[in-house]
Design a protein that fits this description.
226 residues; alpha+beta; Serine Threonine Protein Phosphatase 5, Tetratricopeptide repeat; Alpha-Beta Plaits; 2 domains; six-stranded antiparallel beta sheet; 8 helices
């Protein structure tokens, strides 16, 4: 039988925060000092907008582990002004982290930050994509460095982003073995209407270059005929 912990994580991955909260409450009935379950519960409560309860739950963690990085970060966020549930997907479909051909992709970051930073990350939180030096850096909501997209994917997406495409990304997993994010194409520019954001293999560079050149010629032809 699947353990309650595994179920709680799987439900969180699907964004079903009410169920996630209930499962973690069940876990805490068996072990009230389970800080992992408490942190998961606090995160679910935040997503549901139950900020007071979320704060109290993070405080319970810190009473048990005064240096717990997840609880420290979560409480700091909740004590700051703003919409505390912003950036947390409040209701995701069950296949949120499944790849949809061309529009979504699960990516393992390279050159990741030290474990001290990684330990602050939680499944489902949004991250920011930042273009810099022909690479795409991934940052948390405090603009703290997390990692970089692989070069081949980064260079491809830079061309799309410069052309008007928009993307959103979430943490899928973060641990000592690395950080994985889920990327989704939020908006596709008209000039790329027939081009998927994500392709497989090294030929993506050539495909994008040829298609971009073709679009440029088409745009020029349209201007001349106008």
């Amino acid at each position: 039988m699947t353990s309650l912990k595994t179920q709680a994580i799987q439900i969180a991955l699907s964004g079903e925060w009410e169920k996630a909260a209930s499962l973690n409450v069940e876990i805490l009935k068996e072990d009230p000092k389970d800080t992992e379950a408490l942190n998961r519960l606090a995160f679910a409560l935040t997503a549901l907008g139950n900020i007071k309860e979320a704060k109290e739950t993070y405080e319970r963690v810190l009473n048990l582990d005064t240096l717990n990085p997840i609880a420290t970060r979560g409480l700091k966020r909740l004590n700051s002004p703003g919409d505390h549930s912003a950036g947390i997907p409040s209701k995701l479909v069950s296949n949120m982290f499944l790849e949809e051909s061309g529009k979504t992709k699960i990516v393992t970051l390279v050159n990741t930050a030290p474990n001290k930073t990684i330990s602050h990350l939680q499944v489902g939180q949004t991250v920011t994509l930042c273009k810099k030096r022909m690479k795409i850096f991934v940052q948390d909501d405090n603009k703290e460095y997390i990692g970089v997209l692989p070069d081949d994917l980064g260079k491809r997406l830079i061309k799309f982003i410069d052309g008007g495409n928009q993307y959103i990304a979430y943490i899928k997993s973060a641990n000592d073995h690395g950080v994985t994010i889920f990327m989704k194409e939020e908006k596709r520019a008209n000039r790329f209407k027939n081009q998927p954001s994500f392709l497989f293999g090294d030929k993506t560079h050539l495909a994008l270059h040829k298609q971009s050149a073709r679009n440029t010629h088409e745009d020029d032809d349209e201007e001349e005929s106008a």
